[in-house]
């Protein structure tokens, strides 16, 4: 027994020595960097600063004024008619006459003509079309439409421009696709972007600017992180980006096209619900004010003026009457909120607010407002629906959440012209919008402040994010 009692303390001492040694080793290990707790208040600070730093248009700028003053109103002369050939094809003379008529109509009536490059861009396209048609023995409307579309697609970036013949349709504007990966999560610290998977900092991304790739994103629980999103005009199953970390290691991240679902609310124009007492207004399209749904929507704006936060769900909004955006935001805020883009309508320089309220045409600014407005958007938010985003960029404490909008706003209200020899109808848009640099691009759309990936419901995540934040439950705003 005495021997056993003598041995026991030895084992205890050895065990304690081992624990001390283990603890000493841990003292030399680098403590993991804490996850940055990006709060909604910090996000709003970032977005408010971005609003104030945004480029502004000056309507008195001589370049902008001359753009409106020099708009042409020259109706083209109707082309000579040629007989259709016995096999139903178009004669070369008839095809050439139609093309000449088309480009005369573009020069004389298409308000985006100069913006898209003017004669220097359109004349080479016209000459190439004529040269290719002249080399054909047989010309049919589908063949002719394909040729015209192929060359106009090198010049025209306008989603309202289109051509039709029977069941055939052509839109020269190239499509834009977004590829994403919500599982690749990064944080932004004072030292840069850090991967949540391996805790390494990003040095660069091959062939990409990492500050353009990583987008502030939101998960299903309303938490913030950064994730890679890239844009391409070529559609394929996936793209791969190579992330280079500061320790020299690399990681390949696969990005797939986001397959976001279109919202379907039937024939309803607008509606109001409450999610955990947070008001959510949805608007599917924008009929003129005489429509009962539009009047109800405007009433929502006034009724919700004193709410600490309002969510406006514009996902899959089909557009319509642009004025509705200005009127609703005026009802909600009690003030006329400036618009960012300028318009050429009826061959005069104007703004949405000029048309809606007879407001003066002046540079935009950011209005102060403590109450919060959250706008939900997606790739199906189009045309006049995108005007909400444009106006919201001039209002403090707004958040745009979802995906890029459709990007169909540079023109509108197309006028149909018939190419008589071929029977092809060309829809040439009227009107033209001028945007501040870096704010909007046709087909690309308006970028959201916070990206939401395809496996996350935007509305549910937004409500979770708002409920996580105490700032919306303050009694006084």
Explain the overall architecture.
- This protein has 477 residues and is α+β, with helices and mostly antiparallel strands.
- The chain folds into three domains: 41-60 and 261-409 and 445-473, 2-enoyl-CoA Hydratase, Chain A, domain 1 (Alpha-Beta Complex), CATH 3.90.226.10; 71-170, no CATH class; 181-257, no CATH class.
- Helix content is 31%, strand content 23%.
- The protein is built from twelve helices and 21 strands.
- It has a twelve-stranded mixed beta sheet with strand order 6-9-10-3-8-7-21-17-16-13-12-11. A four-stranded antiparallel beta sheet has the order 2-1-19-18, covered by helices on one side. Strands 15-14-20 form a three-stranded antiparallel beta sheet.
- A hairpin with a 5-residue loop joins strand 7 and strand 8 (224-232).
- Helix 4 runs antiparallel to helix 5 (119-134).
- The chain is globular, with a radius of gyration of 29 Å.
Summed up:
31% of the residues lie in helices and 23% in strands. By secondary structure, it is of the alpha+beta class.
* Class per helix and strand makeup: alpha+beta
CATH superfamily of the largest domain: 2-enoyl-CoA Hydratase, Chain A, domain 1
What spatial form do the alpha-carbon principal axes imply?
globular
Q: How are the strands of the biggest sheet laid out side by side?
A: 6-9-10-3-8-7-21-17-16-13-12-11
The number of distinct structural domains comes to: 3
Q: At CATH's second level, what is the architecture of the largest domain?
A: Alpha-Beta Complex
This entry's quaternary arrangement is single chain
The CATH topology assignment of the largest domain is: 2-enoyl-CoA Hydratase, Chain A, domain 1
- The percent of residues in helical segments reads 25-40%
Largest sheet: 12 strands, mixed
Question: What share of the residues does DSSP label as strand, in percent?
Answer: 15-25%
CATH class of the largest domain: Alpha Beta
Radius of gyration: 29 Å
Low-confidence stretches: 1-7, 18-31
> What is the residue-averaged pLDDT?
90
Question: What's the total count of β strands?
Answer: 21
Give the distance, in angstroms, between the N- and C-terminal Cα atoms: 78 Å
| Count of alpha/pi helices | 12
């Amino acid at each position: 027994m005495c021997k056993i009692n003598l041995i026991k303390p030895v084992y205890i001492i050895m065990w304690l020595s081992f624990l001390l040694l283990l603890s000493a080793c841990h003292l030399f290990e680098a403590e993991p960097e804490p996850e940055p707790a990006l709060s909604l208040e910090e996000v709003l600070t970032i977005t408010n600063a971005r609003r104030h730093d945004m480029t502004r248009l000056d309507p008195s700028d001589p370049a902008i004024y001359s753009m409106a003053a020099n708009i042409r109103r020259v109706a083209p002369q109707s082309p000579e008619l040629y007989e259709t050939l016995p096999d139903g094809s178009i004669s070369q003379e008839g095809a050439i006459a139609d093309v000449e008529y088309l480009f005369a109509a573009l020069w004389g009536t298409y308000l985006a003509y100069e913006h898209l490059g003017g004669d220097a861009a359109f004349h080479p396209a016209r000459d190439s079309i004529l040269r290719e048609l002249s080399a054909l023995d047989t010309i049919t409307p589908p063949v002719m439409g394909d040729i015209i579309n192929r060359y106009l697609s090198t010049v025209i970036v306008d989603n309202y421009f289109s051509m039709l013949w029977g069941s055939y349709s052509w839109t020269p504007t190239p499509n834009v696709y977004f590829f994403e990966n919500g599982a690749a999560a990064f944080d932004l610290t004072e030292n840069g972007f850090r991967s949540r998977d391996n805790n390494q900092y990003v040095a660069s991304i091959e062939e990409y600017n990492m500050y353009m790739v990583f987008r502030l994103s939101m998960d299903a629980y309303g938490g913030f992180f950064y994730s890679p999103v890239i844009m391409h005009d070529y559609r394929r199953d996936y793209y791969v980006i190579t992330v280079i970390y500061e320790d020299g290691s690399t990681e390949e991240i696969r990005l797939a096209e986001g397959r976001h679902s279109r919202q379907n609310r039937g024939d309803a124009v607008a509606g109001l619900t409450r999610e955990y007492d947070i008001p959510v207004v949805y608007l599917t399209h924008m009929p003129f004010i005489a429509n009962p749904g539009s009047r109800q929507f405007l009433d929502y704006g006034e009724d919700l003026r004193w709410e600490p936060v309002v969510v406006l769900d514009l996902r899959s909004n089909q557009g319509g009457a642009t004025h509705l955006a200005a009127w609703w935001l005026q009802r909600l805020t009690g003030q006329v909120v400036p618009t960012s883009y300028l318009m050429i309508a009826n061959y005069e320089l104007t703004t949405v607010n000029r048309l809606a309220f007879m407001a003066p045409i002046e540079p935009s600014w950011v209005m102060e407002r403590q109450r919060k407005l959250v706008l939900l958007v997606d790739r199906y938010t189009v045309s006049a629906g995108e005007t909400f985003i444009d106006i919201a960029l001039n209002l403090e404490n707004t958040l745009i959440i979802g995906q890029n909008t459709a990007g169909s706003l540079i023109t509108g209200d197309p006028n149909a012209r018939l190419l008589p020899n071929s029977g092809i109808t060309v829809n040439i848009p009227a009107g033209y919008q001028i945007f501040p640099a870096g704010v909007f691009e046709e087909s690309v759309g308006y970028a959201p402040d916070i990206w939401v990936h395809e496996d996350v419901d935007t509305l549910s995540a937004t409500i979770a994010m708002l409920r996580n934040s105490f700032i919306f439950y303050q009694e006084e705003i």
